[in-house]
# Entry
Amino acid sequence: MSYTNSPAYNMSKDINNSNNSNNNNNNVNKNVIRTFFDLCLTLPNIGLFVFYLIFILLVPLILIAINKSNLITIYLPLLVPIAIVISESGGRKVRQLYPLKTNETKLIGKVSKLLLNFMAICGIMWMAVSNGINKNSLVYGVLSGIVLIGVVFLISPEFIPIVIREGDKYLEKKDAKMKHNIHKYGIGLLFIIILYVFDIVFTEVSYRSLSS
# Structure
């Protein structure tokens, strides 16, 4: 009996075919991801469309579907910091999502920024009223709203771009940068978490100081 007809040869052949199939699937997945990023960077304003589709439409619908609509009050104010991270990390093709430089702002950028600011303000007012009712304290509700306004509209636009740029420079020196600026998104989202924790802690500390 020849070796090519042996069970061992057939088993080895099957394993090789399986590995080749897995490699082909991985290559297809990588090509799909690469094509998506290329599309976002090629078509004008496609990044804005993807952002509004995911963050403005799908995420709130998912929260409502899983009976977590109370989280929308927390989520809406975060739209501005998230948009800043994407605008800063995604390059000029998504810069009009939440433009920070006046000389680079186009009409669509003004409309997008105005819409995101409006939704964030609605979320802040909603959250401030809810906090005041839950704590049975008007002072706490007003204080939480003021602190969050400072974090969203004063701290975020000033410090998120700086943190992302400095983090990018540091990783470039360490030769640890990632494709498609994924490291920038990671740095930005981490800083948003830090800001969120700062908002909670500062609000609680300030309220206790005023109450004592």
The mean pLDDT is 83. DSSP finds seven helices and no strands in the chain. Residues 67-211 form one domain. The radius of gyration is 24 Å.
